[in-house]
Each structure stands twice: as C-alpha cells, then as structure tokens.
C-alpha cells in the first residue's frame, strides 16, 4: 500500500543524500538531519522512562491481543481482567500502539519491528501483514472500550490517551487513517491521533506534519527519540476528500485498492450531468489525503506501477526506481510528444471539463481548462512529489487578485493546478516557478469524454489506474470533503 511519487525519477534526491551510515557522532548527526525526522536533538531519552510512558498494563494488552486473534471484541478471558477493575493510576501517560509495514524501508523493516517491540511490548506493535488496521479498530479498540464500560478506570484512561504511530509510507498511513475514520460513525468515540515513522518513497504526509522525508541511517537512536516526541507532540487536523467515479456501465476498469465499488451513484444533484450522463452508470468511491491527478503524470506512474508488479526484480531500490521512472517519463511523451502523435490530442482540454463549488457556496461554476496542459492535480497537502510545494508560497496581492486564500491542509479547500509537460513540471518541482494555478475549491467535478481518446490515466495518493472513456457518454470524477477531519500528531 505504498505511495508512488509522481515525480520519483526527477526530484527526490533525499534518499540518496547519504549512501552509508557513518560511525562518528558528527556524521551520524548529519545523516539524521539530511534524511528526515527533523528537529531531533541529542538530549538523551531514557529507555525505561520511555517504556513506562508508553506501556499499557499487561492484562489490557493480552485482552486486546486475544480479541483481535479471535475477531471478537467480547472474547475476553476472565483471568485477564483485574478483580474490581484497574486503577487509573496504572494507566501510562501516553499509551501507544505502532503499525509497521515490514515491506517498507528495505532491509530496515524487520529490524525496526524488533526495536519497537523492545521499546514497548510485542502486543503493542502490529505487523500489517498479520493484523489489519480495521481489525485493530473493530476488535482491539472495541475490547478496550468494553473493559472501560465495565468500570475499569485504567482501561478508560488508556483509551482516552491512546496514540498511534505508523511505520510505513503515505499509502500505509492513509490506510490506517481510513480505518480509524470508522470511529466517526459513533460520535462519542475518541479518535486516536496518528504520527509517522517514514519508510516509504514520497512520504509527503510525513513531511507535512514534521516527521521528515525518509528513514535515518542512525535509526536505532532516532526511533527512541521519535516515540518520545510522538508521546508529547501537539495534535493537528487533516482534511480528507471523498472521490466518486461514475462511468458508463459495461466499461472494464481495474481500480486501485483504495477505490471500492458502490451500489449508489451519489453525484451532486445540484449540477446536472445532462445528455452526456450514461443511462446506466457504474460507480466507485474512495478517500484520499494528498492528491488526485489526471493526465500524463498518472500515465507514467501507471507504467511504472505495472512494471513493479510484473517484474519486481527490476525495481529493488531507490536508484533503480528513479532510472526506470525517468525512462517511462521519456517514452510516454511526458517530456516530448512523439512526432507520430497529434499534439492536439495530448492536451487535456480536448477531453476534460472542470466544475467547482467555492466555499460557502451552493452553486457550481465551470472553470476553463488552460490550453496545452497535460496534467491536472487536485492537491490537499503542501508537500507533493517527495517534498515539493508546487502551489507555491503565493504573495498576498496575488491571492487577493485571484480570490485565493493561503493554502493549509485543514482549511476545507483543495488546490487545483496544472503542468504543461515534463519540463514545466521539472521546474515547478524544483520550485523555480509555480504550477499553473486553476482554482481553490470546496468541491470539484471532473468530466471526461472520449472521442479520439480511448483511455485516460488517473492516480490517487500514488495509486494509478487506467480509466476507459466512452465516445458517447461522459465519465464523472467528483471530489467532496469528508465531514470529519483526521487527527495527526505534529512532530515538528
């Protein structure tokens, strides 16, 4: 479930900045500063003190473990419960669980898991290949709530103070956030905040909330300090966005794991689809936290993604990934449209309409698609493509002129911008120039229509797919803000 950075082969030099761990204190410090987990200091963190801060009482850990194994929140053995209920003073100051994707971080995954278990306990570290986040929510957290409801003050305090760390890439973090979102159905449930140990490629969620861009080489001491910071860090909010893809029934599509088939077509009725709407529609829906893109960048990502799935031995490290990704960028025409193709067919203006709904406004309005753009991005975070900020830090006069506001990840707005081609994207991603600004919106609807184009390419938080297009009827991609916000631990 990892994120594939849309400009993996172009801009992210972070993971190559240090090629080997150094033994000296000076070199270790430089490596940690250059590789992420920013703002770490060399103030010592006592291992036992940290353990007391994070470790839940054994009877609660074992009860949660058994409920998850049996997939039954009520399957709590009597001998695990303290007579008369636990005392609140037994509850740690910052009880914590960690989800780890052992496939992330290269060779570091398994040893990092072992290190985390040493610092906390086996029962508080969940291997995502063995325990899925929704199983923890439905059975582990539910077990804790059941024990608390029976008068156990320690369980009650642990549930209220619980924090979660995710060791993985942006895709893994989004997976955990999505499962925790289930708790919003019960408005009385406390939502645990989430922090990140960055093990992925892009790590834009991690960067946006101060956890750095990659896994440090001095990882053993860094993990201890990271858990210490996570136990005390302030909580920030993160918008999440629901996407609905409605296409003519009968079209064959292989959506990413984050898009699920839906029985109902919930397109906003305030904007008529008109005669272009298919008489019978097939619908998929999902949630994203970082971005949705349409166009050439998604086409390149799709080719890279397909290669990694079919020939994983060709893409086994960051350097080989970047070389392969760069090759796809050139062969697909991202940097230079092949002469045999009609350049006019490459512009998204030929197949795309954009409607937006501004904040506190119930009316939809159409926004012109700029000429010659070949990729359109709807962005939620300030970090994109492994640490770049394509929207840019815009001056107040420009914001006022365009009717924009300063962009934040919790402002209820999504930024829409475009790239003209690979060279334009390269300059934007190195922050020499800003992207082509299109709009800020509280809701967006993209309408795709075929004709000479048989397929469009889209990607959502690094998961690309090929979207078939019908020459007679439109495919609609609608984005709306999820009513609740996710909670993140700020590591900065």
Automatic annotation (TrEMBL):
SUPFAM superfamilies: NAD kinase/diacylglycerol kinase-like. Keywords: ATP-binding, Kinase, Nucleotide-binding, Plant defense, Stress response, Transferase. It holds the Pfam family DAGK_cat. SMART domains: DAGKa, DAGKc. Its EC number is 2.7.1.107. Monomer. This is Diacylglycerol kinase.
């Amino acid at each position: 479930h990892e994120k594939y950075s849309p400009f993996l082969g172009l801009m992210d030099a972070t993971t190559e900045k240090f090629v080997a761990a150094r033994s000296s204190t000076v070199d270790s410090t430089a490596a940690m500063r250059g590789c992420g987990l920013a703002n770490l200091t060399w103030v010592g963190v006592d291992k036992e003190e940290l353990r007391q801060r994070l470790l839940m009482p054994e009877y609660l850990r074992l009860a949660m473990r058994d409920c998850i194994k049996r997939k039954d929140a009520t399957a709590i053995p009597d001998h695990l419960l303290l007579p008369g209920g636990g005392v609140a003073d037994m509850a740690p100051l910052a009880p914590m669980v960690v989800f780890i994707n052992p496939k992330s971080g290269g060779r570091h995954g398994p040893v990092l898991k072992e290190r985390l278990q040493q610092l906390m306990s086996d029962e508080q570290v969940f291997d995502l290949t063995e325990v899925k986040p929704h199983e923890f929510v439905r059975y582990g957290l539910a077990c804790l709530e059941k024990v608390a409801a029976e008068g156990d003050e320690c369980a009650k305090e642990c549930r209220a103070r619980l924090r979660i760390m995710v060791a993985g890439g942006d895709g893994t973090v989004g997976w955990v956030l999505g499962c925790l979102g289930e708790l919003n159905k019960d408005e009385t449930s406390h939502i645990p905040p989430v922090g990140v140990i960055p093990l992925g490629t892009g790590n834009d969620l991690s960067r946006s909330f101060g956890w750095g861009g990659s896994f440090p080489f001095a990882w053993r001491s860094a993990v201890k300090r990271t858990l210490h910071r996570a136990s005390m860090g302030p909580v920030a909010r993160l918008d999440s966005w629901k996407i609905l893809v409605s296409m003519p029934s009968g079209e064959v599509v292989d959506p990413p794991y984050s898009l699920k088939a839906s029985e109902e077509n919930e397109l906003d009725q305030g904007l008529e689809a008109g005669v272009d709407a298919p008489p019978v529609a097939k619908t998929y829906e999902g949630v994203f936290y970082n971005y949705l893109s349409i166009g050439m960048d998604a086409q390149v990502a799709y080719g890279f993604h397909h290669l990694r799935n079919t020939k994983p031995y060709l893409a086994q490290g960051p350097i080989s990934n970047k070389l392969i990704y760069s090759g796809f960028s050139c062969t697909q025409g991202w940097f230079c449209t092949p002469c045999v193709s009609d350049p006019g067919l490459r512009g998204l203006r030929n197949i795309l309409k954009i409607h937006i709904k501004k904040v506190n406004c119930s009316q939809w309005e159409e926004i012109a698609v700029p000429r010659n753009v070949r990729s359109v991005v709807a962005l939620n975070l300030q970090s994109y493509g492994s640490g770049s900020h394509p929207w840019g830090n815009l001056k107040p006069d420009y914001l006022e002129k365009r009717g924009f506001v300063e962009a934040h990840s919790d402002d209820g707005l999504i930024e829409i911008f475009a790239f003209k081609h690979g060279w334009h994207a390269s300059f934007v991603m190195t922050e020499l120039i800003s992207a082509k600004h299109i709009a800020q919106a509280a809701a967006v609807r993209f309408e795709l229509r075929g004709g000479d184009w048989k397929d469009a390419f889209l990607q959502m938080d690094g998961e690309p797919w090929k979207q078939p297009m019908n020459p007679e009827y439109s495919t609609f991609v609608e984005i709306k803000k999820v009513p609740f916000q996710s909670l993140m631990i700020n590591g900065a």
